[in-house]
Amino acid sequence: MPTLLITGANRGLGLNLLKLYDQEGWTIHACCRNPDSAADLKAVADVSAGRVTLHPLDVEDPSTIAGLKIALGATPIDMLINMAGYLGEKALREPEGLQPFGVTDYDVMEKAYRINCVGPLRVCEALVDNVEGSDRKTIINISSIVGSIGGDNFGNFYMYRPSKTALNAITHAMAINLKDRGITVIPFHPGFTKTDMGGPTADIEIEDSVTGIKAVLDKVTIADTGRYLTWDGGELPW
Ligand SMILES: NC(=O)c1ccc[n+]([C@@H]2O[C@H](COP(=O)([O-])OP(=O)(O)OC[C@H]3O[C@@H](n4cnc5c(N)ncnc54)[C@H](OP(=O)(O)O)[C@@H]3O)[C@@H](O)[C@H]2O)c1
Q: Which of 18, 137, 159, 226 is deepest in the core (most CB within 10 A)?
């Protein structure tokens, strides 16, 4: 079976998408900041007969990314999903949760950039040889519709938005630079989903999001590289 490596695997979309690949019998490298306290993820690993391996990974900490590479060695990675993400310190429904103009916390903005953009690039650069050595050779960078400039008619999200737009720019460039190595690179919007990040009033259930994401990813080929795809089979403008 193919091999998946996914970041942000302990909760939300990461954990629930991982479960779908686990059900199909994939070998899974599940990365999260604190494996020891990731009870739900450990429960999946415990009954996987060694197919699901947990790795400590804080995408803000380069030493943990280097440690992941050492642990993996030359292990082929068919699908690398950069799922870990950070919105900010306030939930969407809290006052200023939509991050309106005029109240930007620049520390939070920089943290969002480190987690949502710098970290995924660092993970990709560390593991690109593992992806190239696999059969499927696919990298999925989980972005957001909020990263789309052409599709924006709402504004706001001054701390989160630029980190996802920057991730899109990097992912677009990677699609160009890695095509000759046969690697498919996709920026992906998972839908406005009822996770801790999306909150209870988001549009869709976690199950619908991850089922949709997997259905799209099952069909992705090198012909799709660089397309800004969505959980429901759509495509977004940059
Ligand atoms: N939910 C939505 O509506 C929505 C919409 C568009 C895009 N997205 C994107 O989808 C992805 C998953 O979101 P979600 O809704 O599942 O969010 P979530 O429930 O808030 O989960 C976020 C995940 O990212 C991890 N994470 C945060 N900072 C990290 C770091 N420095 N290093 C490693 N892992 C870190 C968290 O780990 P800890 O438990 O250790 O904090 C957690 O596993 C994110 O990239 C998000 O931007 C979500």
A: 18
Contact predicate 9/32, CB 8 Å: yes
Ligand 1 nearest-atom number relative to CA 191: 5
Ligand 1: lining residues by beta carbon, under 6 Å: 7-8, 10-14, 32-34, 57-60, 83-86, 115, 142, 144, 189-190, 192-193, 195-198, 202
Strand order of the β-sheet with 52-56 is 52-56, 27-32, 3-6, 79-82, 138-142, 184-189, 229-230
The candidate with the shortest Cα–Cα distance to 122, out of 85, 86, 82, is 82
Closest residue by Cα to atom 36, ligand 1, is: 8
**Cα 110 to Cα 117, 118, 172, 211, 218, distances in angstroms:** 10, 10, 22, 32, 34
Task: Ligand 1 pocket test: pick from 6, 7, 11, 29 the residue with the most ligand atoms within 8 Å of its Cβ.
Answer: 11
Residues 151-169 have pLDDT tens digits of: 999 999 999 999 999 999 9
Note the pTM of the prediction, 2 decimals.
0.99
Q: Could you give the domains of the chain?
A: 3-230 (3.40.50.720)
- Cβ atoms of 3 and 25 closer than 8 Å: no
